[in-house]
Amino acid sequence: MKIDILSLFPNMFDGVFTESIIKRAIEKGIVDIKIHNFRDYSKDIHSSVDDTPFGGGAGMVLMCQPIFDCIKSLKTDDSIVIMLTPDGEIYNQKKAIELSKKKHLIFLCGHYEGFDERIRSICDMFISIGDYVLTGGELASMVLVDSITRLLEGAITKESLDSESFSNNLLDYPTYTKPREYAGMEVPEVLLSGDHKKIDEWRKLQQIEKTRKLRPDLLEDKDAK
Ligand code: ADE
Fold first, then answer.
1. Ligand 1 centroid to 113 CA: how many Å?
2. Which residue has the higher pLDDT, 168 or 59?
3. How far is the CA of 141 from the centre of ligand 1 (A)?
4. Is there a single domain that holds both residue 70 and residue 168?
5. Is the same domain home to 96 and 135?
6. Is residue 62 pLDDT above 70, yes or no?
7. Domain membership of residue 35 as a residue range
8. Ligand 1 pocket by Cβ (under 6 Å)
9. CATH number at residue 16
10. Are 44 and 86 contained in the same domain?
């Protein structure tokens, strides 16, 4: 998969893409991630990317030209252009799975008061990572890259994906490691039994009970994966 990220703050991505699973996925060629500073596309002599809003009001608005030109230079027939914005569709695991099947994602991260409304005309999707306002779309795009990359074939083992939270609309089952007893708390007996059929049944039951208790809404959401 190819991912292009448009941002005025490329340094914000250092660390997140140079550690752990994402780093390895890049090294293995599973994902190719490039950050583009759309200021480089500004045709203004001062390299401006924003201006005051028509009609007055607070803050600065990102203007069309640098973003249109940057996206135009990257876009192909396989591309999906995604604007990260608090007024977008709320992101979830189902959306992560859907996006992990695409060939090329272009993420557009804003800052300041927002985008010139006409920029929406060149975007295919509008995604929010929650009902709160971030200083920009960078952190949101990192959340998407992380959650999508780990779903790509070869990034992590398939077994890890099968049982994790939100697959089949259920939260993950509880896990334990050594020692068998810690601070008076015991590991459930069934996990020490060696009976894998029993262990699988116990885990499934735990998933259902945990989901009913903590996230009953997931059990009602028939559409989610
Ligand atoms: N930009 C600012 N806030 C955001 C949010 N909650 N989700 C996505 N992009 C954003």
1. 12
2. 59
3. 9
4. no
5. yes
6. yes
7. 2-149
8. 84-86, 128-130, 132-134, 136-137, 140
9. 3.40.1280.10
10. yes
Does this model's pTM top 0.85? My answer is yes
C-alpha of 188 from chain center:
34
Among protein residues, the one with the nearest Cα to ligand 1's atom 2 is 134
Q: In what order do the strands lie in the sheet with 2-6?
A: 32-36, 2-6, 104-109, 79-90, 125-128
Closest CA to 70 of 118, 10, 5: 5
Q: How far is CA 16 from CA 11, 26, 53, 110, in A?
A: 10, 12, 33, 19
Tokens, residue 45: 């002599």
Per-residue exposure over 58-97, b if at least 16 CB sit within 10 Å of its own CB, e if not:
eeebbbeebbbebbeeebeeebbbbbbbbebeebbbebbb
Q: Does residue 225 register a pLDDT over 70?
A: no
Q: Name the β-bridge partners of 35.
A: 5
> Which residue's CA is the closest to the ligand 1 atom numbered 8?
128
Residue 223's pLDDT is 58
Nearest CA to ligand 1 atom 6: 86
CATH number at residue 213: 1.10.1270.20
Domain count, the chain: 2
